[in-house]
């Protein structure tokens, strides 16, 4: 991969880029803080809400929404060619950061700016309808990912071939085994042209043959995509796909470092 | 390829900014109407997958309901079936659209939780999905409308263009109620029950099954304050060849303006939070 050497040389020059720069593909996260309001079972009932009002302020303090700070003051600058691995314990904010990058979560403070087409492959089952056929699911998934009906028809053959499901594609997905579902979902999800690819740990799907296939396809996708951000607990996997790494702990992010310094980062 | 190549998400920057972001959501959904349509079509197709008649099943059951009610009530009210049946048939079909859009509104965001929590799809897309789904169903039920108009010869007096205008007013109003319900139902899980009860009640106080002219004098207030009556009449009267009260258009227009203003305002305020409600 030729982009590799370019990236490493620009790695040190991580100035918080002025927004005037017309970089084609770019992720810029500044002072991102994200809090989850926890709407307890209590607060979700209108009756309890109303009851709280009628008895005055006393119960009101309980109705005050509890918040969990999932990310605090995260800063991140990525350019084309950057392939960032996110490491951290469960609940450290990796998935939340990915979701914020996908545009699903709105920051409470700070900002997230992404230039380029985003493909978020956070959940393989996104937009999969178990009672629809394999073909219908590919179409549905493609539409959700932003492809037009025609683009999907053009890619349908390729996806079908990749999935290796053959005649099963005309059957409802609920008749598939877990591995077959993974093949379908993976094929459909990775058929998009993306500049920014967001992935949550789910690469280890299917049998050995399929893992090989998936690996090849993913590498191709990574080559095509300008930026990859992947959260994973599998350090070998991160070494394979990424050239940079960032550690999250309790919603607080470290600096982005070169993948070769991952061990030092993890030991810290 | 409709590519949203630039995305900016920031913390709160005041009411005007929030309003702009809400408006941007609306605009983006407009660019992706095809997606809303595909999702709606998929919903309809998957609901009736494996059945031979497909969505025509509801059309069929609706047809039987129309016949049964029309003959029974025409007897009870001692009016001729010829006058009564077209009224009931159109009433059931178009009130069905109102109920469908509003009741299914409860599920709009809740059912889309998966997509909303990992993509930047506009929220309005899912509102349109609910609306389109019901319009597709209406498309099937038009069989009843056309059959009734033909069989009873009512079509000779119909004003289809006026009815189409009325349908647009109906949908515009049903859509804001649907969205209002969608937001509140995401936050408070009691809302679906409340909405279902209200719509059941509305089916009886709105002249769907009974002729509106049975109410005379001051008792007509029951009709005048009923928004669903106006929504229904805007479509039904022109099809039956009856004059539509100009007041109905005034009420519907005012309702659409105020309703959308309130709903959009609420959306601007809650937009960031909706995904966390789910």
Largest interface: A-B, 50 and 40 residues
As a whole number of angstroms, the C-alpha radius of gyration of chain A is: 21 Å
Mean pLDDT of chain B: 88
Order of helices and strands of chain B: EHHHHHHHHHHH
Number of E-state strands of chain B: 1
Largest sheet of chain A: 7 strands, mixed
Shape of chain A: globular
How does this model look, in words?
The complex is a heterodimer of chains A (268) and B (278). Chain A is an alpha/beta fold and 268 residues long. In chain A, 38% of the residues lie in helices and 24% in strands. In chain A, strands 3, 5, 6, 7, 8, 9 and 10 form a seven-stranded mixed β-sheet that branches. The two termini of chain A are 30 Å apart. Chain B has one domain (15-25, 52-277). Chain B is built from eleven helices and one strand. Chain B has helices at residues 15-31, 33-47, 56-76, 81-105, 113-116, 124-151, 160-187, 191-205, 221-224, 227-240, 246-277, and one strand at 6-10. The interface between A and B is large, with 50 and 40 residues.
Task: Throw out a few tags for this protein.
heterodimer, A: 268 residues, alpha/beta, 7-stranded mixed sheet, 10 helices, B: 278 residues, mainly alpha
Give the secondary structure arrangement, pairings included.
The complex is a heterodimer of chains A (268) and B (278).
Chain A: H1 3-10, E1 26-38, H2 46-54, H3 57-63, E2 66-79, E3 83-87, H4 94-102, E4 109-115, E5 118-121, H5 134-144, H6 149-163, H7 178-189, E6 196-200, H8 208-224, E7 227-231, H9 235-241, E8 244-249, E9 252-253, E10 257-258, H10 262-267
Parallel strand pairs in A: 3-7, 3-8, 5-6, 6-7
Antiparallel strand pairs in A: 1-2, 1-4, 8-9, 8-10
Helix pairs in contact in A: 5-6, 5-7, 6-7
Chain B: E1 6-10, H1 15-31, H2 33-47, H3 56-76, H4 81-105, H5 113-116, H6 124-151, H7 160-187, H8 191-205, H9 221-224, H10 227-240, H11 246-277
